[in-house]
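Agenda item 2: zinc ion complex prediction
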Amino acid sequence: MTTDDAHVQHTWQLRHPDGDEISIDLWTDDYTVRVDGGPDDGDQREGGRADVDHLLAKYQANGHRLVRDYPVNDPAVAEEPLEDDEREPDGRPEHCPECGSPVEYEARYSDDFREGAAWLCTGCKWGQWLTA
Ligand SMILES: [Zn+2]
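Presented output:
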């Protein structure tokens, strides 16, 4: 029994009628699988849920029963790529046509009238709207 389960995403617990217990942990990296107890005690695999399914099928065929399974932590999520509408489109003006200051892209700009992607001047705050 471990008290540190911050790396565990989901745990499956199986029990054999003779009292033998096995627990399978899927780690939050979504591929590391760790077995505690049973014939594969201490085994560590890297096949993710496919390995879990394989092990569950194997142990159940061997007489183990799935006692319970429960989520422990959310899977780790890689940094999300920018949504399409947050990526800066081509055609950025070199300078503000009004005052010559640099412009910056703002994906979710809004003023009193509209909301959406806009080029904004860092100087005079002139905005060139990209979308209506
Ligand atoms: Zn300007």
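Discussion summary: The CA atoms of residues 55 and 103 lie 57 Å apart.
Owner for follow-up: CH.
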